[in-house]
Amino acid sequence: MDVRFSIALPREAYTVAVVREFVGEALRAHGICDECAFRILLAASEACGNAVDHGAPARDYSVTTHLHSASCVVEISHKGTGFTAARVPPPRLDAESGRGILLMRHLVDEVDFSGSPQGDTTVRLCKTLHQGADGAAGCGRVPEPALC
Ligand SMILES: [Zn+2]
After folding, report:
1. CATH number of the domain located at residue range(s) 2-135 in this protein
2. What's the 120 CA to ligand 1 centre distance in angstroms?
3. CA of 108 to the centre of ligand 1 (A)
4. Is the pTM of this model over 0.85?
């Protein structure tokens, strides 16, 4: 399996729910289990919330989901001054975005931040998917097409 879904959205708070619906439906359609989907969607929601809250002056942001047989990668990008991991202070009780990054790191296997001097910021979330014995079960298995 090697599938890519991509969506661009305005930097508005309501679009975080749109991303959850869109990516969630894509994950379900490809047989990703509820636990993996929950973790991926919650981490992606945090990253999208950060792009919405801290992505100024970018007007929009994009979300690209890559589904491989063993992993799912979600990249959330915007062209703003944004933030990188190095610039994020250690979380304090009142630091919402710092806590969000800790949460993302807890939910998925890898969280990477990258940026360019032009202000492009990308958060890359990578989650390993369950592997069934001899490929028979586990999540990430593409459902058999219906026969009728
Ligand atoms: Zn799974």
Report:
1. 3.30.565.10
2. 31
3. 12
4. no
